[in-house]
Design a protein that fits this description.
- Helix content is about 50%, strand content about 10%.
- It has about 350 residues and is an alpha/beta fold.
- The chain folds into two domains: about 190 residues, 3-Layer(aba) Sandwich (Rossmann fold); about 140 residues, N-(1-d-carboxylethyl)-l-norvaline Dehydrogenase, domain 2.
- Strand 4, helix 4 and strand 5 form a beta-alpha-beta unit.
- Helix 8 packs antiparallel against helix 9.
- The chain starts with 11 loop residues before the first strand and ends in an 11-residue tail after the last helix.
- The N terminus is likely disordered.
- It binds nicotinamide-adenine-dinucleotide (NAD) and SN-glycerol-3-phosphate.
- SN-glycerol-3-phosphate binds next to helix 8, helix 10 and helix 11.
- Its EC number is 1.1.1.94.
- Keywords: Cytoplasm, Lipid biosynthesis, Lipid metabolism, NAD, NADP, Nucleotide-binding, Oxidoreductase, Phospholipid biosynthesis, Phospholipid metabolism.
């Protein structure tokens, strides 16, 4: 770390992405006393943060610290920073990262809190960032993941997350920057596992919403979470993740939260589908992003390419994109060939 980082009050932070999670995290950092520059995509979001100290579009009801400086100037926000947090939806990660390429200082630590797998390339966000920002060495990159609804973090409800980096010092630095008495941060070295856990759980959360929308019971949901975790783990093992990550915060932790929490956008999309709405109708009413919708496509194609069995993800994909009825999908899952529970690998 640079000399500047030895004194917290000198640490300069940029946050890229003014959705609910970006706003909650940027405000956490600003409230800790870090001067935080905050890139928001929409001009009206900047204007009303300046006027009301609130992000009424994406995180209504929370006062934002005076230490948070909203801006529409992406380059200014990422320039000369010790730490840049990127938290845009995964489908705009590539275009956003390309715009900041060449403007990241040598010492800057990049933290990514977005969760998703890019369509087409099947890259997680670390892969997209490695391609678009080759000037950022792996040692300066970390992923922040785990069970964390933005509104609950903004309300300062005790929340526990994990920061994964190949470089332990980077993970420890990021841990120190984000930790508060209501936001506990663990370190981890498994970037792949943390990203896959955080991304694929969104697909399983859509499935969980679907079964609740259909009015199926607690047995069904417990089975879905357990078998959903088995397929996340199977994909993770194939891609070199540490299996232990999936029993941690970025694995079972985030999966349980998103499959059971009414605040989840992914669960909510699924629930509405289970109740009979079409995906098109649901998405037309949403300004926020349910990452699992696009990630379902990536997981479907990637798992087929790799030959990894992921039946729940596949049926969720067919419901979303091929008009398969949810009840038919459940029947298909329940009548697959019978097998040994632990035949995983
Ligand atoms: N909200 C949460 O509780 C939460 C928690 C953990 C992780 N995440 C992850 O954080 C990421 C961001 O989600 P969010 O919840 O902060 O956003 P959001 O769904 O609340 O809002 C969507 C965001 O996308 C932005 N946007 C739209 N078009 C854009 C473009 N062309 N370029 C750049 N930005 C554009 C909007 O300005 C807005 O900031 C996602 O990957 C999500 O899975 C969210
Ligand atoms: O609201 P969701 O479904 O995008 O989930 C938000 C977070 O990923 C929960 O950790």
């Amino acid at each position: 770390m640079t000399k500047q980082m030895t004194n917290d009050k000198d640490i300069k932070i940029g946050v890229v992405g003014g959705g609910s999670w970006g706003t909650a995290l940027a405000n956490l950092l600003a409230s800790k006393g870090f001067k935080t520059d905050f890139w928001v995509y929409e001009k009206e979001v900047k204007a009303q943060i300046e006027e009301y100290r609130e992000n009424k579009f994406f995180l209504p009801g929370f006062f934002l610290s005076d230490n948070l400086f909203p801006s529409n100037d992406l380059i200014e926000v990422v320039s000369n920073k010790n730490l840049v947090l990127i938290v845009v939806p995964s489908h705009v990660m590539r275009e956003t990262a390309l715009k900041i390429a060449g403007h990241i200082s040598e010492q800057t630590i990049i933290v990514c809190a977005s969760k998703g797998i890019e369509n087409g390339t099947h890259l997680t966000m670390s892969g997209v960032i490695a391609e678009t920002l080759p000037e950022v060495p792996e040692s300066h990159f970390a992923v922040l993941s785990g069970p964390s609804f933005a509104r609950e973090v903004a309300a300062e409800f005790p929340t526990v997350v994990t920061v994964a980096s190949k470089n332990h010092k980077t993970a420890q630095f990021v841990q120190h920057i984000f930790a508060t008495p209501f936001f506990r941060v663990y370190t981890n070295d498994d970037v792949t596992g943390a990203e896959l856990g955080g991304s694929v759980k969104n697909v399983i959360a859509i499935a969980s919403g679907i079964i609740d929308g259909l009015g199926l019971g607690s047995n069904t949901r417990a089975a879905l979470i357990t078998r959903g975790l088995a397929e996340i783990r199977r994909l993770g093992l194939r891609l070199g993740a540490n299996p232990r990550t999936f029993t941690g915060l970025a694995g079972i932790g985030d999966l349980v939260l998103t499959c059971t929490g009414e605040l989840s956008r992914n669960y909510t999309v699924g629930k509405k589908i289970g109740q009979g709405q079409t995906l098109k109708e649901i998405l037309s009413e949403m300004r926020m992003v349910a990452e699992g919708v696009k990630t379902a496509k990536s997981v479907y194609n990637l798992s087929r390419k790799l030959g990894v069995e992921m039946p729940i993800s596949h049926e969720t994909y067919h419901i979303l994109y091929d008009d398969v009825s949810p009840r038919e999908a459940v029947y298909k899952l329940m009548t697959r060939d019978l097998r040994h529970e632990m035949d995983e690998e």
